[in-house]
Structure formats: C-alpha cells, structure tokens
Amino acid sequence: MKRLRKVTGKEKRIFGVVGGISKYIDPDIDPVALRILWTIITIFAAPAMITLYLILAIVLKPEDCVVENLQKESV
C-alpha cells in the first residue's frame, strides 16, 4: 500500500514534502520537475500553497519512520 511520506536524506530540500509527493505519484519522476512546478504555482497562489506546504510538513511522517516501525514489528 502506497503512503504519502516526507523524504529524508539527500532527496530532502527544505522539509521533504515535495520530494515525498513526487515519490508518491511516481518513483521514476524527477523531484526537481515537481519542485519547479510547485514554485510556479506558489508564485500565483502564495498564501494557499505556503499554508498547504506547512500543514503537510507538520502532518506527514518521514519515510525512515516507517522503516523503524517495520523493524520493530519483525523482531
């Protein structure tokens, strides 16, 4: 089952939200393209997009959190 998670590590830029969205949509998509699209939309709808980004940054769990939970369950 696919879940929306924030990315961590090298793929993370600010909070890892847009990188997580690009992985959720399609793991083969270049996250840079989605970041550029996000930035363009933010220019035209700044208050809504900034608010959405901050909410997602708070609500989404990092993807390494899932790995830790799976390791605990397997032991």
Report on this structure.
This protein is mainly alpha-helical and 75 residues long. The protein has one domain (9-74). It contains four helices and no strands. The radius of gyration is 14 Å and the shape is globular. The two termini are 22 Å apart. The mean pLDDT is 82.
Helix and strand topology:
Layout: H1 17-25, H2 31-44, H3 46-59, H4 63-74
Helix pairs in contact: 1-2, 2-3
SS class:
mainly alpha
User: What best-fitting shape do the alpha-carbon axes yield?
Assistant: globular
Radius of gyration over C-alpha positions, nearest whole angstrom: 14 Å
**Number of E-type strands:** 0
- Percentage of β-strand residues: under 5%
**Annotation field: number of helices:** 4
Low-confidence stretches: none
Q: What brief labels describe this structure?
A:
single chain; 75 residues; mainly alpha; 4 helices; globular
Summarize the structure.
The protein is mostly helical and 75 residues long.
